[in-house]
Each structure stands twice: as C-alpha cells, then as structure tokens.
Amino acid sequence: MAETNKTLRTCEQGHQYYKSSDCPTCPVCEKKRKPLTGFLSLLSAPARRALEHEGITTVQELANHREKDILKLHGIGPSSMPSLRKSLEEERLRFKD
Fold first, then answer.
1. Residue 16: CB partners within 8 Å, gap ≥ 6?
2. What is the pTM of this model?
3. Fewer CB near the terminus (10 Å): N or C of the chain?
C-alpha cells in the first residue's frame, strides 16, 4: 500500500482535517458552503469555486461566457459541462458564441 504524506491542518474556523496537497480548502467548511439548490449545487467543489472566483453565480451570468473560456478555468473539466449546459437549457439560455 502506498504511503501518503497527509498533514493535519486546522482552518480559521477551528476544523481539523488531513490533506496531502497544498490546497488550503477546509473540507468541513466547503461542505457547509455548498448550495442546496441552483446550478452551483450540481457541481463539484472545485468547479463551483472556479465559477464563484470568476463572479459567476447565476445561470444568466454563465450565459455571458463562451464554453471554451469556462473550460479553461482551473477546477472546471469536461465532466462539469453537461450539468452547465443542462442548467442553461432549462432557462432557455446557452453559452455565448
């Protein structure tokens, strides 16, 4: 079995968690932040954070971007795109050409 170098960390809220990467995100805080509804609730935490970092928090804001530009964001991968396309279609929107 491969050995991982996980380190114990404590976030600003006092949650303790183990991480093997340099990612500073606390999984406990992230789980509490996840929306219960809306298109962001359908995405993984990295994909959601990528969109939020760009100020994209509504489907209408998403429609103002080109699909290829969204795919370039760190945290967005091809597996995120079907959910994003479906969310746009449900609002009769689409990615910018």
1. 8, 9, 10
2. 0.75
3. N
Residue 70 burial class via C-beta count within 10 angstroms: exposed 0-12, middle 13-18, buried 19 and up: buried
47 burial via Cβ count (<10 Å: 0-12, 13-18, 19+):
buried
Rounded distance between C-alpha atoms, residue 14 and residue 27, angstroms: 12
pLDDT digits (tens, 9 = 90+) for 58-93: 999 999 999 999 999 999 999 999 999 999 999 999
**Given the DSSP bridges, would you call strands 7-10 and 16-19 parallel, antiparallel or unpaired?**
antiparallel
Banded pLDDT at 19 (limits 50, 70, 90): confident
Least Cα distance to 56 among 92, 88, 82, 14 occurs for 88
Write the DSSP assignment of 24-65 as a string of letters. Answer: ---HHHHHHHS-SSSGGGGS-HHHHHHHHHTT--SHHHHTTS
